Amino acid sequence: MSEADVKSWINGDESAKRMLDRVLTSRPSFSLPPPLHRIPLRVANVVEIAGPSPSAKTQILTQTAVSCVLPKVWNGVHYGGLGRPVLYIDLDCRFDVLRLVEMLRHRIVQVNGCSSTAGNEEILKLSMRQFSYIRCYDSFELLATLKTLHHRLQKEKESNGIGGHLLMIDSIGAFHWVDRASTTLPLGGKNRKCLSLQNVLEIVVEDLRKLLLIHPMLVIVTKTAIVGTTGNEVKRNFKRWPSSGTPDTSSELERLQKPYFREYMPSIWQSFVTHRILVQGSDDHLAMPKSQENDLAYVSEWLLPRLNILDKFVVRDAGVFLVS
Description:
Radius of gyration: 23 Å
Largest sheet: 9 strands, mixed
Structural class: alpha/beta
Protein name: DNA repair protein XRCC2 homolog isoform X1
CATH superfamily: P-loop containing nucleotide triphosphate hydrolases
CATH class: Alpha Beta
Domain RecA family profile: 21-226
Organism: Rhodamnia argentea
Distance between the termini: 49 Å
Number of domains: 1
Shape: globular
Helix content: 25-40%
CATH architecture: 3-Layer(aba) Sandwich
GO molecular function: ATP binding; ATP-dependent DNA damage sensor activity; DNA binding
Strand order of the largest sheet: 5-4-6-9-1-12-13-14-15
Order of helices and strands: HHEHEEEHHEHEHEEHEEHEHEEEE
């Protein structure tokens, strides 16, 4: 922004409608596939997908990446994607690129209705060029990656004319317990300071904040969560019932069996997250159309902001599908 633009912005007077139009144009909201579809998200939001392992967290990331890298319209055909780049940082080191390609093919074939055309392969290659993948094996590689992301994104923006749109980290707590077992994390050299677990997360959050100021993106991270039921706390929370009446055993049992989410990440990370969704496996097995066997169901619930809605979904070859 030039000096003249800054002065005009400071001295200017705009209506609320014009301000909203400007903000929505510069930072538009966009909808993501289920189960992230309940809340409109914008760049600079940090969405945490928490859940025990396995709970389809990586599958949700993969489907979201497919919706982002696919073009909205190509050669007059509407594919419904965003046509924007995705940067995927894999800390679990278990990402399956063939699964990404498989889901992309399903989406393309679903639109074109044919699986053996040259156009399908061309749009597949076009979409895959929008996907960048980085693998980190420890906290030091993660810190080094974050330090170089600005240069990487700037270079891609100059070459492609478009900057990053979606940053994915799978999974942010991958090194938490290893780092916690070490009292200090030496950076190397006698005169170099050592990092604690708290320091590592502080640097990660600081680098991400700086990155989002220069390259506004939506950040989606997964985190393995510790989920239990308050039924485990029955002995601790036991209280004697009055002799004059009997408790409502059904409501009390429901309260005791209600799942809870136990946070283990430092407060610096918790304050950085703007949205959080909890996903868990369900005991239900659902028979889907054209399926030879029942599919394992999963349940998602928004914790931040709190929504009193539970979405049930299954994972098929073509991706994640909501079920009623």
